[in-house]
Amino acid sequence: MAWNQERAALRIQRFKETVPQGEIVVEDFARYLGERRVLKASGGLTDDKLAILRVPRNRAITTHGAHIYANLIDFNGVLEDAGVETEASHRRALEFLHTHYSACDSLIDEFDIQRVDFHGSRLHAVVLTPEGRENEPERIRKAISFAAAFRQMVERLGNDFPEFQTAVRVGIDSGPAVAIDSGKRDEPDPLFIGSPANHAAKLADGDEEGIFLSNRVQHARDQNAPTSFTALAKAVETGFLQEGVSARGQTFDADTRLAKAYIDFEAQMKRREYPEQASDAAFRFHHKEPPLKDIVFAEHPPSNAIRMPLASIFADIDGFTAYVDHAIQTENVAEAVANLHVLRAEMAAVLREDFGGRKVRFVGDCVHGLLAEGNSRETNAMDSIRASVNAAGGIRSSFDLCKMALPGIAGLGLAIGIDFGPTPICRIGLRGAASVRTATSRATCVSENEQRRCTGTETAIGEKAYAVAPAVVRQIFGSERVISNMDYDASAMLLGTMASPYVSSVQAEPMRAHAPEPMRAHAKL
């Protein structure tokens, strides 16, 4: 399989026609919420949630909300036994996530806020009501109360089930964002684009536990508050458990809502003690013959989970948050949303159609994909890494085509990270549509971190992938395991002509393909 420029250009044109900018309706959240209330009153809305859920592709909802990111700090330690990933450690890691996701969903329901996504050890939720800019302090108060309750819930959970103990770090920001969903009916991919979610995620990233507030949140609480980059004092955090929280027409303090949510969670845990009543919680693994593109997550509950060595790829659009913030300020939201739909769709199509890979999910403006080469018994590591490098080149070439075909995105870049290792794949068995597509391992964590260390022109490969890669791949990426401006033409030429660094000492000319600068590996001087 290979990337083809003509095929990619036709796809991009088709994606543009599927959701043209002129057909995207940009709607304020207050109006959207009013429509849903009318639908619910008339019986036309079966879901009892009035918040944003499954936004149609031709709509974009402008919101003003408090965004919460919660990070289970100790999750990475659960992934390994004595430094090695095993079936037992992966089973324990998935049970860890399954349990914490279930507990978190119980608390989210009790607080009547919106769960956006779970991604590995991270939760993204948003407080959208009471709506209106003037109610920002109330939404922030509710968000902090939820964060305090969530940290307390995780502590209780760890005391009752020591194998699931973890510290928690929470980041909170508030402000305007646009809600969209470019997923499918059976695989929703909700997203709030704009800086609040992005900033909250960065605040939640770190090893120090606690609740961390952005400058905007701190000043919304108190205009005279000095800027602080430390966690809320424990006494202040505990005080928020006594705050009244209104949800579904009733007001209870956060501690009472926490107690009610924990009772619901305990009932779920008791059901899991009886496998015949909760078979979804029994994790059983099998190898899947590549390609991975035909994986249907609905067919892989915990009892039918896949586990196999594979390549994990993260491709993140560099500069997109600032681009969206500018679009919001200049009332050019429809164009930005249309562009993102096309960019997301084409990156996923390169993985699936050109290289037989599988998109796990979109994480904001980033796509997470999996790829493997091999047979029904085993994965071929070298072939998988070679294919993943070509796929990264194809994604970058398609991104360059998108920049030529779409308005206003010339300044955006693409950062790509790759790693390789044994990875379990399944959906976590939460309730119905609340189930979560999961592919979580050291390889997935490292590939995301590799992407983070890249600029918008770079592709990086993790240490484990580098160690088992063909010699030509190691030569291409150099000792720093990073390369600039590697599009598909460059990757195909290098992988196809430099079979071994030991049979040729000829220095290749710098590749320029679709890039404004020479391709180069980063090496220490």
Task: Give the helix/strand layout.
Elements: H1 5-18, E1 25-28, H2 29-41, E2 59-72, H3 75-78, H4 87-111, E3 114-119, E4 122-127, H5 136-160, E5 168-181, E6 190-193, H6 195-203, E7 210-213, H7 215-221, H8 234-239, E8 244-247, E9 250-253, H9 254-272, E10 285-286, E11 305-318, H10 320-329, H11 333-355, E12 358-363, E13 366-371, H12 381-405, E14 413-428, E15 436-439, H13 442-452, E16 458-461, H14 463-468, H15 471-477, E17 482-484, H16 488-497, E18 520-521
Parallel strand pairs: 1-2, 5-7, 10-11, 14-16
Antiparallel strand pairs: 2-4, 2-5, 3-4, 5-6, 8-9, 11-13, 11-14, 12-13, 14-15, 16-17, 17-18
Helix pairs in contact: 1-11, 1-12, 4-5, 4-9, 5-9, 11-12, 12-16
Commentary on this structure:
The structure is a single chain. The protein has helices spanning 5-18, 29-41, 75-78, 87-111, 136-160, 195-203, 215-221, 234-239, 254-272, 320-329, 333-355, 381-405, 442-452, 463-468, 471-477, 488-497; strands at 25-28, 59-72, 114-119, 122-127, 168-181, 190-193, 210-213, 244-247, 250-253, 285-286, 305-318, 358-363, 366-371, 413-428, 436-439, 458-461, 482-484, 520-521. The protein is α+β, with helices and mostly antiparallel strands and 525 residues long. The protein has one domain (5-268, 281-476): 2-Layer Sandwich (Alpha-Beta Plaits). Helix 4 crosses helix 5 (136-160), helix 4 (87-111) crosses helix 9 and helix 11 runs antiparallel to helix 12 (381-405). Residues 66-204, 311-431 form the Guanylate cyclase domain.
